[in-house]
Amino acid sequence: MTMPLTTDRSSKPWYHYPIMWLVIAPPVGSVIAGIITFVLILQHPDPVIQTPHATVPVLHGSTANSVVPPAE
């Protein structure tokens, strides 16, 4: 003879269990941090730095036979 399974009708809603907040908090925190980062990027873009054209270096030794094409 087996005992019938009983169900607890007085269970709490999901948000009353602390473990659920530990499961939900990291993804929600990551989304919020991503939104904050995106807003900061839009408000403070990096400045464009223009440098003069570099001179072509003189290659000596085994570097002269490399497969890298020369700079323009």
Describe the protein's architecture and organization.
The chain is mainly α. The protein has one helix and no strands. The longest helix has 26 residues. The mean pLDDT is 80.
Q: What are the key terms here?
A:
mainly alpha; 0% strand; elongated; 72 residues; 1 helix
Quick synopsis:
It is built from 1 helix and no strands. It has one helix spanning 18-43.
Mean pLDDT reading: 80
Form type: elongated
The helix/strand class is: mainly alpha
Rg is: 31 Å
Work out the number of β strands. 0
Largest sheet: none
Approximate helicity band? 25-40%
Low-confidence stretches: none
Euclidean distance between termini CA atoms:
89 Å
Strand content: under 5%
Question: Helix count, per DSSP?
Answer: 1
Query: What is the H-and-E element order?
Result: H
Secondary structure: elements and pairs:
Layout: H1 18-43
